[in-house]
Amino acid sequence: MRCDDQRVRITVLAGGIGGARFLIGLRELGHDVTVIGNTGDDVEMWGLRICPDLDTVMYTLGGGISAERGWGREDETFRVRDELSAYRAAVDDDAPSWFGLGDLDLATHVLRTQWLQQGTGLTEVTQRLCRRWQPGVTLLPMTDARVETHVTLTDGSVVHFQEWWVRLHAAVPATRIELVGAADATPAPGVLDAIGGCDVLLLPPSNPVVSVGTILSVPGIADAVRRTAAPVVGVSPIIGGAPVRGMADACLAAIGVETSAEAVARHYGTRTGGGLLDGWLVDETDKAAADLLVEEGLAARAMPLLMTDIAATTEIAQAALDLAADVRA
Ligand code: GDP
Ligand code: CA
Question: What is the distance between the alpha carbons of residues 212 and 225, in angstroms, rounded to a whole number?
Fold first, then answer.
């Protein structure tokens, strides 16, 4: 049985841009897709709760993303940000200005914050926001709890992930990356069922440390992935020893993992060896790594992994499902 013979229930653990791009291709295949989104990047600015990765998935699949930036809204303006800066300059306030919040984007954060303050959980809030954007997938936050990824720098100071990523461009080496609040967090409603009850579980080419790794560090999620009856197939975000975009190499260095498709596969580990993966797609330039991993018992395959357009991305998604079907057989 091939996966494309019928509608398949697919669950995807996704970060922002890499995850969202992959989902655009996967959606073309017409299956039932549930996305478990990373909320470790969440941050509070101007008293507003911002969920960058959930919004990137929602805006990308809903057709509202800025194509040029890859985050935030198309046709965006920044008048509120500039107005806030004018007030701050007048009172010598040095509140952070490195995090760009556009005027259209602000509406999302205002509503989300209001609903959260009224006691609505983030899962329900996300569903309400998605009612407008109709992303064509079910989007769940990994947890309703307030958690935050913090990064320890070489001088011992600890900063919010966004400060390291956006303000410092991850140029300052990190020695530790931790999801603060994880110990008290539980998976959001529907998350464990989506992992345990799907036909295929996919790890898209999202950042293995601060996107997929963060989702897996919510207690119960990694165990559910290890135990699911569904085949688990990942797509490498690393091609030819480098991230395609972004600074995933800095994240991998922080946890002592080499920046290569092979090392990321070993980091996730094989399910037969107590890890997470049954299958792993690498780019054709990393074919040697695939051959080596196959010898060691992981179903690895090499193919072009650049998500240059929807057609190329759909082929990657189909290859991941084909690999899942082979693994199941
Ligand atoms: P973020 O939360 O916005 O950083 O996005 P994700 O964590 O979902 O994805 C970031 C990862 O996507 C980076 O590590 C990139 O290497 C990877 N990525 C971006 N474009 C491509 C692509 O075309 N092909 C592959 N294989 N990976 C990509
Ligand atoms: Ca992110």
Answer: 12
Contact 122, 116 (CB under 8 A): yes
Pocket test for ligand 1, best of 206, 236, 283, 305 (most atoms within 8 A of CB): 206
Report the relative pairing of strands 9-14 and 200-203 from DSSP bridges: parallel
Of residues 95 and 224, more confidence is placed in: 224
| Pocket of ligand 1 contains residue 211 by CB under 6 Å | yes
For the purposes of burial, counting CB atoms within 10 Å of the CB of 229, is it exposed (0-12), middle (13-18) or buried (19 or more)?
Answer: exposed
Q: In the predicted model, is pLDDT for residue 3 greater than 60?
A: no
18 lines ligand 1 (CB under 6 A): yes
- Beta-carbon count within 10 A of 95 CB: 11
Q: Report pLDDT for 75.
A: 96
According to DSSP, the residues that pair with 37 across neighbouring strands are: 14, 141
Does the pLDDT value for residue 140 go beyond 90? yes
Phi, psi at 60, each rounded to 5°:
-65, -50
Rounded distance, CA 278 to CA 324, Å? Answer: 8
